[in-house]
Amino acid sequence: MPETFEPRIVAFFCNWCTYTAADLAGVSRMRHAPNARIIRLMCSGRVDPQFILEAFARGADGVLIGGCHPNDCHYIEGNYKCLRRFRLLRRMLDDMGVEEKRCRLEWISASEGDKVKRVINEMVEQLKALGPLDLPGRFRDWDKEVAELEHAASAASAPCDCHAHKEEAAHA
User: Fold this and answer.
1) Which of 5, 75, 97, 169 is the most buried (most CB within 10 A)?
2) What are the distances in angstroms from CA 86 to CA 9, 56, 89, 126, 141?
3) 108 found inside a domain
């Protein structure tokens, strides 16, 4: 019997809103898929794009970022900083061939435990439809491709000491 794919999601949640909402969902016994591993940060503005790239490089199939609603950030404008970085990151992920639905940003307040449940469940279903990302496997393929290109380039630029090339140089 073939094993079914269960996506792995890394979730970066703001301490003051989204993490509190996830806690509310838990104490309210709202069931959501167990696929998300939550990392609590003080603010969504502290989410460095490198964190997302590292999560994908280590095998995550999706990344979820949760922060306070606009104009409700405990650090005044941390969520706007997050939004700017997220838009830049989206372009970079697109260039890498990572589908848009694999990285998601949601504004979730502390009282929205039901939204945490809904967003995680939606993301799990979307990732199941997309299938595994396997970015580490892609890295191996890219490394192999680069090695082949390097070999071809060095072979093409290697000096040749064959007789025909010496005669051509003498006649020139």
Assistant:
1) 75
2) 17, 15, 5, 19, 27
3) yes
Question: 86 and 40 share a domain?
Answer: yes
Query: What's the pLDDT tens digit per position in 33-81?
Result: 999 999 999 999 999 999 999 999 999 999 999 999 999 999 999 999 9
- Write out the residue range of the structural domain in which residue 103 sits: 9-133
pLDDT recorded at residue 164: 59
Q: Let me know whether 104 and 33 are in one domain.
A: yes
Whether residue 164 sits in one domain with residue 105 = no
Q: How many domains does the chain have?
A: 2
* Average pLDDT value for residue range 117-130: 98
| pLDDT the model gives residue 169 | 59
pTM of the model: 0.82
